[in-house]
Specification:
512 residues, Serine Threonine Protein Phosphatase 5, Tetratricopeptide repeat, Cathepsin D, subunit A, domain 1, 18 helices, 56% helix, 8% strand, TPR repeat, repeat, TPR_rpt, TPR-like_helical_dom_sf
Length: 512
């Protein structure tokens, strides 16, 4: 017997063994390349050969055996056969821990792989115990890329368990360590920024999420270009965050810059996993901007009813100077504010406020944000709760009221107001300013006859119905006029583009 697990043979591996293993590794790398290029059939054909070949290599010396277990597990993982992948990753970890020790980079990579495959099987508690247990064996002063990748994976585990504050601590620790060990323009550092941005978004800290993801996007573009896999991953996440911040103009520019003209350019597996959520975000953008024709066109493209679409290159929104109380200049700014709320310790906390001219019942704040401010004990349950419904007709009942002090993000004047606290089931907003407060403080110009829901629960009379019908017709005419102006502007832009094409090809720009 050439090798018994746990005993290293004395003679070196035969040249034939090394050559066969090298060929399998080459096949595996080819499979990964086909997968990245959305050619799944060719990838799976090579992975099947790898599984057969690596299985025969498990009887070799410990180096080849651990490598075979690793590649075999990764091959199973590429085919979503998680149970087999877990078993082989654990064997790889066992061998490397014995022969290399717990701090060796190869061992740490194996442990991280085990944690990841446990998460993929929805076993977050097992993943937490594995990562935390192994990190406890390491020298606290150890500074290596592989260690901080494992720390990041532990942060993802805590995020999966909805233990966000602990998750944030590990994400920040991992990002700091990776910056110091491998630098900003490293794939693992980009992953750390990406997952930190996703975590901030999940916690409702959208301003922080946008900032982190914009930096990651810039690094990706400068390092690998604006069309690579890392750039696409970060850009889709950034666009989703901007949609949730009601920055619809910026979100359109972000999402259309990376979407393909045709679905045929993307493999169906990659399309479903990565592109469909982004396309749905874009449909939400067009719907919110009352561009129903664009929304219908994108929806038809997503459903395969039309072959391709030509994305319009949307210019980035120009920054404008806005006074604290005056109506903002851009349509996007009109309904989205960044504010700073004073927390229990007297420190300002950034939050996103929606100016909702259809909310006729006070100002509102999420319970999640109140907890982050350390103001939960300030919530009063002694109040008269308004009975309101959301845009879908679902009843929304406040869980309490709280008085808070805040100011515009770049302003100096402080305001104080009482807020109804959203129930946990309606906790996806930070802050909403209702129409009464908007008019009182002259925040935006409000057309009161266009206010429909969010409304008080009461039966409409004939006069109310007639007023609503008039308001709806007025809004329809305004949207039609806006659409006509937009079409005219696009036609003018197209004519100008045709003229400019005659001036020479050297001034051609990139299409989005």
């Amino acid at each position: 017997m050439r090798f018994i697990l746990g005993k290293e043979r004395k003679q070196p591996p035969a040249a034939q063994d090394s050559a066969e293993l090298a060929e399998l590794n080459r096949l595996f790398d080819e499979a990964l390349d086909f997968g990245r290029n959305d050619n799944q059939p060719e990838a799976e054909k090579r992975l099947q050969k790898c599984i057969t070949g690596y299985s025969k290599s498990l009887s070799l010396n410990y180096e080849m055996a651990s490598s075979s277990h690793d590649y075999l597990a990764r091959s199973y993982g590429q085919m979503l056969r998680w149970a087999e992948a877990e078993a082989h990753f654990k064997m790889c970890e066992s061998i490397r821990t014995k022969y290399y020790g717990p701090s060796h980079p190869a061992t740490l990579r194996a442990v991280t792989a085990v944690v990841g495959v446990l998460l993929s099987q929805e076993k977050p508690e097992d993943a937490r115990k594995k990562a935390k247990g192994h990190l406890g064996k390491l020298d606290p002063n150890l500074a290596s890329c592989e260690k901080f990748v494992l720390v990041l994976e532990l942060g993802r585990v805590y995020a999966n368990l909805r233990r966000h504050e602990e998750a944030l601590s590990f994400h920040q620790q991992a990002l700091k360590g990776l910056k110091e060990t491998v630098g900003l323009n490293h794939a693992q550092t980009i992953y750390a920024q990406y997952f930190l941005g996703k975590l901030y978004a999940e916690m409702g800290r959208l301003i922080d999420a946008e900032s982190v993801l914009k930096l990651a996007q810039e690094i990706c573009e400068n390092t690998w270009g604006a069309k690579g896999a890392y750039y696409r991953m970060v850009t889709f996440a950034l666009g989703s965050v901007q949609v949730n911040m009601y920055k619809f103009v910026e979100a359109e520019q972000t999402l259309t810059s990376i979407l393909p003209a045709s679905k045929n350019d993307v493999h169906h597996t990659t399309w479903t996993a990565h592109y469909v959520p982004a396309v749905r975000d874009l449909i939400r953008v067009y719907t919110s901007l009352h561009r129903q024709e664009d929304a219908q066109k994108v929806r038809a493209w997503m459903n395969g009813e039309i072959e391709s679409v030509q994305w319009v290159n949307v210019p980035k929104a120009q920054a404008t100077s806005i006074s604290e109380n005056s109506a903002p200049q851009s349509s996007e700014e009109s309904f989205h504010w960044d504010i700073k709320i004073i927390d229990a310790k007297g420190n300002p906390v950034l939050a996103t406020a929606l100016l909702d001219t259809q909310c006729q019942s006070g100002n509102w704040i999420s319970q999640r944000l109140v907890e982050r401010l350390g103001k939960s004990s300030s919530i009063s349950r002694d109040f008269s709760a308004p009975s309101v419904a959301d845009a879908n007709g679902n009843s929304v009942r406040a869980s309490g009221v709280v008085t808070l002090e805040f100011k515009r993000h770049r302003g100096n004047r402080f305001f104080q107001s009482q807020f109804f606290v959203f129930p946990p089931s309606s906790d996806h907003f930070d802050v909403i300013f209702g129409v009464e407060y908007i008019v009182q403080e002259n925040l935006v110009s409000v057309s009161e006859d266009a206010l429909v829901p969010l409304v008080l629960h009461k039966k409409l009379g004939e006069n109310d119905k007639a007023a609503t019908a008039i308001a709806e017709e007025k809004r329809r005419q305004e949207r039609a006029a806006l659409e006509a102006r937009r079409q005219a502007a696009q036609s003018g832009s197209a004519s100008q583009s045709q003229v400019s094409q005659g001036s020479g090809s050297q001034q051609g720009g990139q299409s989005s």
